[in-house]
């Protein structure tokens, strides 16, 4: 359930065209060499396609009416595309195949729980065949999310969201999507995992004026992307495979927007101390399996699983000895051979599920206890 500001631009341009036509202004001829593509000048094919598709999602066109919705959406997807969302426990759907299964799976479930969410991409990197975006959403949490009720006030939440896409020609064949459930629950007072060691500063846009969303495609070459990818692959290898564990591809001073349960780091030292070291201490025989790496200009993303044996305490959970999948979506801004900013999401409910811990059940109990406490407080206040 992706997003975008660029999509809004496309819409404004369309409205402009209509206005000109109805005012009877003479036909406008495009200057030679100027192509106002969806996704912005110079954008690779996958960026254009995803941007086109996402316009529909952003505008919530016929979101709960299968027929018109499918007419809008079908052209962007292959027949049997895979949509693969977070682990959602009692909602009971895994990766779905095809438009109808997505509609009845994540799409209707999410939009009923968190209706009318407003999405803004801040990273949007692509090649001709792959794309990735990092997005925040703003909305009111209004219905049960995976069996967990919102507070009665239906509070506003900031949703950390990311997507990875694989295309076949002009259609999307795979969409991996993650959002930070731990962080969203924490925002309303459901502290399902221990509070992170670092103060969370949220999910922030890159500290660089190189596009919003970044990167602005025509500012960068394919050589820029190749240089970034070399560093990114080396960093993934060093951080998660058999490397130093010292985060040696990271600059000394960074902005790292870590997942709920960890927090925001401003130094390589804190990144290592509060993310890499606890991970390596808790899981033995880590093995990384990478689905997709995408780089454009200074920006890279990776969607991967690490499998590890749970032999040490992690996020408050005592070792279970189980082999668990740690699903991650990571992004980086790379300057002069070092990562200067990073964003990370981890599908913690999935990790907990593999440990035999009912993440959503625990959250639901907290939600019900919070609601009951508020209820008795307001009854006492009434008397
Ligand atoms: C994408 O395809 C176009 C047209 O074939 C080509 O000019 C461009 O270099 C390609 N871009 C990338 C990032 O591969």
TrEMBL record:
It comes from the Eukaryota. The lineage of its organism: Eukaryota, Sar, Alveolata, Dinophyceae, Suessiales. This is SnoaL-like domain-containing protein. Residues 1-19 form the signal peptide. The keyword Cell membrane does not apply. Keywords: Signal. One of its GO terms (biological process) is polyketide metabolic process. It comes from Polarella glacialis (Dinoflagellate).
């Amino acid at each position: 359930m992706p997003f975008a500001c660029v999509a809004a631009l496309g819409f404004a341009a369309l409205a402009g065209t209509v206005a000109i036509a109805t005012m009877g202004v003479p036909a406008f001829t495009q200057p030679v060499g100027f192509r106002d593509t969806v996704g912005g000048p110079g954008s690779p094919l996958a960026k254009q396609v995803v941007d086109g598709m996402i316009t529909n999602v952003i505008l919530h066109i016929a979101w709960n009416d299968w027929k018109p919705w499918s007419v809008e959406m079908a052209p962007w997807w292959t027949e049997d595309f895979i949509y693969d969302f977070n682990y959602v426990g009692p909602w009971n759907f895994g990766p779905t195949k095809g438009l109808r299964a997505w509609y009845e799976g994540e799409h209707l479930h999410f939009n009923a729980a968190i209706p009318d969410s407003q999405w803004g991409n801040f990273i949007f990197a692509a090649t001709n065949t792959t794309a990735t975006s990092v997005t925040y959403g703003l909305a009111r949490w209004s219905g049960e999310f995976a069996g967990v009720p919102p507070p009665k006030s239906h509070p506003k939440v900031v949703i950390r969201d990311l997507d990875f896409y694989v295309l076949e020609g002009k259609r999307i064949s795979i969409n991996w999507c993650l959002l930070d459930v731990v962080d969203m629950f924490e925002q309303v007072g459901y502290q399902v995992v221990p509070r992170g060691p670092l103060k969370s500063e949220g999910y922030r846009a890159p500290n660089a004026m190189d596009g919003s969303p970044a990167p602005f495609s025509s500012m960068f070459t394919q050589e820029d992307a190749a240089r970034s990818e070399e560093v990114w692959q080396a960093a993934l290898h060093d951080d998660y495979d058999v490397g130093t564990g010292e985060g040696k591809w990271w600059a000394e001073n960074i902005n790292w927007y870590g997942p709920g349960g960890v927090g925001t780091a401003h130094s390589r030292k804190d990144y290592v101390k509060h993310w890499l070291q606890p991970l390596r201490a808790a899981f033995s025989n880590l093995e990384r399996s990478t689905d997709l790496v995408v780089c454009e200009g200074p920006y890279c993303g990776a969607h991967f699983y690490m499998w590890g044996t749970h032999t040490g305490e992690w996020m408050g959970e005592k070792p279970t000895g189980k082999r668990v999948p740690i699903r991650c979506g990571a992004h980086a801004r790379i300057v002069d051979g070092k990562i200067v900013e990073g964003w990370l999401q981890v599908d913690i409910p999935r990790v907990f599920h593999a440990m035999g811990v009912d993440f959503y059940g625990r959250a639901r109990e907290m939600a019900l206890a919070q609601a009951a406490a508020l209820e008795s407080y307001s009854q006492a206040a009434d008397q």
